[in-house]
Queue: 2 jobs
Job 1
Amino acid sequence: NVKKSSIIETSSLGDERGFLAVLETQSNIPFEIKRVFYIYSTKEDIRRGFHAHHKTRQALVSVAGKCKVHLDNTSRKEEVTLDSPNKILILEPNDWHEMYDFSNDCVLLVLASELYDSKDYIRDYEEFLKVYSKSTSEV
Ligand code: T46
């Protein structure tokens, strides 16, 4: 089955000192976090991503600045704007994704369910359709 991406809102813990937002396995991240990376200083007009995964689930949050994410799970295409440190996009392996419209100050933090493995990437769109378009029922 095609799994649907989702948006999670974190609540900011705030006091007179400022804010603190928590991402934690099970309490709001629906997978065991094995890897963290962040994308920053992305040049204007750059579009990156262009892949789906076999196994990896990911959580994307723009902790500073903003960017957009184009999603395609073979049965639906959508565009998500990540413009708040409290807005978390949960990507399923079947989500082909492209990130673009990065602000100069954007720091895109990514939490991943798996260690890095280049073989987990599907970088060819035709292959992506072959792998995932058989799954017809969207949840
Ligand atoms: C994704 C989106 C949101 C590593 O060596 N280890 C790692 O953990 C990662 C993530 C990347 N790399 C290497 C692989 C490439 O040589 O770093 C280089 C840049 O990665 P890539 O071209 O895959 O970057 P994006 O922005 O296209 O995609 C990244 C993640 O790779 C990917 O999992 O879903 O961000």
Job 2
Amino acid sequence: ELARWQRPLRADFPIVAANPEQAYLDSAATAQKPRQVLDAVHAYLTTSNANAGRGSYPWANATTALVAGAAQRVREFLGDRSAGAGAGASPVHFTSGTTEGLRTVARDWLPQLLRDGDEIVVPFGDHRANLAPWLEARDLLAAQGVRIAVREMPCQAGTGDYDARALAALAGPRTRFVAATHVHHVYGADMNVHRIREAVGPDVPICLDAAQSVGHQPVSVADLDVDFLVFSGHKALALPGTGAVWARGERGPAFRPGGWAGTPNTAGIASLAAALDWLEAAGVERITRWTAALASVLTDGLSRMPAYEVLGCRSSLAADTAVQRRGSIVTFRHQAIGSQDLGFILFSHGFMVRSDDHCQAGRDPQDGSVRVSLHVYNTLEEMEKLLTALAKLQ
Ligand code: PMP
């Protein structure tokens, strides 16, 4: 049933259809784009391209409305039940991706919150984009005589996802901010972030890096009870150079990300709205099940080949859920072949994978691995062919 659902969706991706001998397995870096997204960009640029928030002629008004509409689309897609599109709606700030989004929170908002002696808790072993901005904010504040302590978000020894009990013990009256990652970009694990709120209490702002969850699994800011949610549009089927920060409207210091100070990427914003429409029509929950099924096939196959080690961090959520959640990312190493070489060999067989340290914070770059990351257009046949190619390298 899922295979019948998937086939026409795969056909929506022109680059995939044009390259039947190639398997794109690097969607965690950036995803391919469906025709409908490309059409939306073309339609915008050929009917009403202008700047947003300035000018009062029809194309400028249409562009301003496009940006406001896309912001509302983001709120809806993220399950923000609090407000309509009008005044009082939670701010949505468009960025070039998650890196710029996290940096925006760190630069434009966090310093307003912090006082001398405060503490923040941030992840040390996730993507560098979710560590560097917090350290920079600390250093900037230190230069102004405001000392902030940065604590490491604790992880569970057995699974590697966040340890809510240890976090509850770590968080004290001076804990003013927590940053976390929804799904790990190397291990694919769902990091169990819904337990962070109960660990830190109602008043501590939580900022979530959702780069690897938006578009892959249902994401609800209401259920997660976070204050900032940052994601990459380009990993969620929109154009390169797109992303957004959603900020909870009604609480904390105002989030002032520059307003209309610069020219926004309006074509990219049009693509993001179209991508969210496409994902919703396809069914995000089905995308989760499809890619988890493919990832399970790959993980199971690799576990039968002694030459390979699958890296992980297995989410403790996997044990709680009926459908075993393996996400859309499988990362592994060969015992003898280096990850760069393995990447080249796999490309010679038509597989596009990522092979390096994956921008993971705190990792030795020598310590590389091969990452296979999936999206809705990938197929079981691709997984079987990949396993055949990997088996020959044992
Ligand atoms: N955080 C995570 C968890 C990621 O996987 C990535 C992309 N690899 C980023 C941040 C950075 O995203 P972007 O390239 O859109 O800035």
